Amino acid sequence: MAAADPAPALVALDNAIAQIDLLISRLTASSTSSADVPVAAQPKAAVAGSNGEKKTSGKAKPAKPAAVPASGGENVDNFDKCDIRVARVQAVEVHPVAEKLYVCKVEVAPGEVRQVVAGLRKFVPQAELQGRLVCAVCNLKPAKLAGQPSEAMMLAGSHPAAEAEGGEIVKLIDPPQDAAVGDRVCIQGRPASAAPVKQLSSKVWEKVAGLLRVQGGAATFDGQALVTGAGGGITVQGLVDGSEIH
Questions:
Q1: What pTM, to 2 d.p., does this model score?
Q2: Looking at the predicted structure, is the pLDDT value of residue 29 above 60?
Q3: What is the mean pLDDT of residues 138-156?
Q4: Distance between CA atoms of residues 143 and 205, nearest Å
């Protein structure tokens, strides 16, 4: 009996090996091409956010903090230019020639006494003014009133009243009784200005004074209460809401 021819079996084996080699070469080529893709070009894995939406992974950029305004607006900036202090009236004399004026010696800081000419003679008795704590604007340009130098201005509130002498009611504004001479007056919730201007222009003061009003027995600026640096409120007795302060 003749032996079987091995040639067909060998051919089939060679073909199988060739197919395996081809498959291996294709897998190797695919792996190499994936590795060559730059990292930046590969898509980031998507993860679900808390609201169910998808978002890309990776570190999120921190949000920039909101810008803090450098100032409180023009009105507050103007107020901060004023040097308004708690002061004490040490002496009161009637003006030698002007019947409406007092000539006062006012301590505006410990050891610093200035002369102040005040048009209060018709409204505030001399004895009531003597020794009283007041609020004084200390950086207005010095002026001469009826021949007498005046180096500051005491603040008072007023409103028209036909029945009152002079046609108006005038009341000094009152610092807290425990305030110290030299304490700065500021807007509630804001510190006193660290650097008021050396000399306040009349135009800036007019803008500030136009926003000073009496509300609920308190002195206010643009609707905000005025206080001393220590936190005590500035008050005005006996005037209706909306009365001007000047």
A1: 0.70
A2: no
A3: 97
A4: 15
Residue type, 108: V
**Residue 87 clears pLDDT 90, i.e. is over it:** yes
234 φ, ψ (degrees, to nearest 5): -95, 125
- Spatial separation of the C-alpha atoms in residues 207 and 82, rounded to whole Å: 11
Given a contact cutoff of 8 angstroms between Cβ atoms, the answer to whether 154 and 244 are in contact is: no
Reported confidence tier of residue 20, pLDDT bands at 50, 70, 90: low
Instruction: Label each residue of the chain as H, E or C.
Output: CCCCCCHHHHHHHHHHHHHHHHHHHHHHHHHHHHHCCCHHHCCCCEEECCCCCEEECCCCCCCCCCCCCCCCCHHHHHHHCCCEEEEEEEEEEECCCCCCCEEEEEEEECCEEEEEEECCCCCCCHHHHCCCEEEEECCECCEEECCEEECCEECEEEEECCCCHHHEEEEECECCCCCCCCCEEEECCCCCCCCCCCCECHHHHHHHHCCEEEECCEEEECCEEEEECCCCECECCCCCCCCEEC
CA angle, 96 then 98 then 104, to 5°: 65
208: left (phi over 0), alpha (psi -120 to 50) or beta: alpha
Torsion 17-19-23-29 (CA) sign: positive
When pLDDT is averaged across residues 207-217 and rounded to a whole number, the result is 97
Nearest Cα to Cα of residue 154 among 190, 107, 193: 107
Q: Mean pLDDT, to the nearest integer, of 175-182?
A: 96
Q: Which neighbouring-strand residues pair with 78? A: none
